[in-house]
Amino acid sequence: MLTTLWVRLGAFLGKVFLIVVALGLIGWLLATTWFAWHYRGPVSAQEQIPLGESAMTQGIIQTAISVVDQHRESTRYLRDAHAKAHGCVKAEVQVVSDLAPALRQGVFAEPGKVWQASMRLSNGNAYPQMDSAKDARGMAIKLMDVPGPQLLTDQQGRGEQDFVMFNHPNFFVSDVAEYAQNIAAQANGQSKQAFFPGWDPRTWQIRHMFIALGTLAPAPNSPTESTYYSVSPYKFGAANAKFRVAPDPQSCPQYSLPPQNQGLPNFLRNALNQQLSADRVPACFVLQIQRQDPSKFMPIEDTSIEWKESDAPFETVAKVRIPAQDFDTPALNLACDNQSFNPWFAIEAHRPIGGINRLRKAVYEAVSEYRHSRNAEQ
Ligand code: HEM
Asked: 3-state SS of 188-219?
């Protein structure tokens, strides 16, 4: 009697299991088919600015500034995002000597040219936390002494071209409206509402939630071992493009980083110090451009979409070298904190485009000004 009951229960649970697996497979198949149908080319090669976009920007600035206030570290005011630096290092960016004519745009116009640059490596979080915490990792590069007019009319003296990236190819929101809703929910501590704003399933952002979870990744062994993406698009002369910076160990002396104690809070800074300062070994990267092909699904106005490499390859336009150096001193670390990187510190040939970049124009400037003025008052 008891045996029969167990056999029946086993058979029933087996059936339930098979039904759940089958439903899961059907759901996955339907979602994949819908995605392929909904998200397909061609797309516009021009920016398309939605009505009401700029009106949302002021609210986002206020949220960003409240985040800066909330997370201020003892007496200093830190960045709203990427608050913790692993270090600011000097770098050299050399345009490849046999660059194809179509790729000779803006700061890459002259093959072989070497730009002196400053690079800040960071964690993505709004306040400093253990490097072992899951997070995005940032790289910001500033080329110096760049001739020609700057995009921001009040910043003409800068002579800079910035490249601001993190180590995930796409963003957890599509556009400014979604960013406004998401960040307001997060700032209020309602992380569930950030991706599930209401009961209506049409408002649920399940795909974007998975992008956010994928962005918050375990730390690399060293900041020199990650690939960093622009995520959002930029002009590249007359074309539109995204860019990335990827490790290129073949261009540097062979080096293997000794194992770091990943239990230490700042082990990514330690790893950088070990390579550049203690072992005196440079780090090498390539800077690559991915040009938009508007006949493919490579949209300008949706940063949640990764442009597929099968649709347009990344092409190397420059080599980036971080020479051996001592970057970890109190004076250099303070200067690092006081520096500002901004995708709009740029020349026309590399103009940031798309909604998320239009938003960044106002927000980076406002937050940078706010933290600088507050720190000057201390
Ligand atoms: C395309 C997606 C984005 C990427 C790749 C990105 C990357 C970065 C990186 C690497 C930094 C640190 C720069 C440094 O080292 O000084 C940074 C800073 C910052 N980001 Fe973003 N970010 C993105 C989108 C956004 C958005 C949508 C906002 C808000 C509207 C935002 C707001 C900020 C702010 C306020 C700072 C600090 C600026 C300062 O005080 O100097 N970012 N971002």
From this structure: CCCHHHHHCCCCCHHHCCHHHHHHHHHHCECC
